Amino acid sequence: MEFLIYLIGIFSIAVFSTNASSCPTRSNVITFDDIKHSARASREVYKDDKAVIGATIRKTPYKIVRVFEEELFEKGEGIRVAIADHGNTRMIIFRGTDGLTQLLREGASVLKGQHEINYGQNRVQVLKFFWSAFELVYRYTLPYIQDPKRKYIITGHSLGGALASMMAIKGAVYHKSLLANPQSSLITFGQPRVGDAAYAKLHDQMVPTYRKIRVVFMSDPVTKLPPYVAGYRHHSRAVYLGRGLFSFWGKKRSLVEQEIQDEIADPDFEDNVDSADNGYIEPRSKRFFFPKNYYMQVCEKGEAKSCVVHLNSIAPNLLHHAMLFYSNALESSSLKFWTIKSERKSSWEDAFIASCHGE
């Protein structure tokens, strides 16, 4: 049986890697709705009263059909996976870091070593902490990824993004139905580096680089962990989600103040602050508000350091890791879209497709 799995892995790598560089079209591109819905789902899965069977994920058409949980370490630090359906699309949502204690453990776990995985003839290393978490919940997903005609969206935030990354490559090698539909995709937010250079390279061979995105919001420090100097690498495709630091230049002060007041008065923003997703949001009185001026830029393959590091994102800011910042930016009416060559497009879909064609 092990030899059969080995052969399947070799065959899958040979077949899937040949298609890894194909560009998306209007019929199979990762849509902006897919990204927004994934962000909302990755945010709602943290909430015990929202991540329940039968619940409709807020601001999406997706309905949760199953929820699985396993305890990672001590009580209160569990791993959660939710399965949500809408028509022929199924979303697999991994819950990420639940609190600062677990976040710090993710950083400290670098010292606990790596775990070696064999995909056919390919040996890769991933962070042992991530692999242990993935093994806890992976088996629960298997009955829900068997239909090759379905469109699957694999998503998660923080640790959940790392688990989603491993789910995608595991599916590409051993469960081909997961990515059989050309509209299926991997969409993560605040994802840390999962493994070594071999893992990142194999991931890009197995999961086409334009069928996956890992969104980075401004100076989210978790996206820079585990450290590059320790041998860890990101796979593709980074998408930088930023906010113009100097968007108010050339405007009258009264207009700037009005923009700030508009942001504070946004009903959804109030709800976001009150809900305090993930425990990372400071009290309202201690926060400084910027005018809304968000943009998304498609980045080059791999680490994409030149794309995700900007003047206003050099200093790490743990607040930028909060899932609500990701979802708020994606739902902003001011959001602009830029290609890999910094050309502005009228839609996310146009920017993503054009980037693949070198624009």
Automatic annotation (TrEMBL):
InterPro entries: AB_hydrolase_fold, Fungal_lipase-type. Gene3D superfamilies: alpha/beta hydrolase. Keywords: Signal. SUPFAM superfamilies: alpha/beta-Hydrolases. GO terms for biological process: lipid metabolic process. Residues 92-228 form the Fungal lipase-type domain. Residues 1-20 form the signal peptide. This is Fungal lipase-type domain-containing protein.
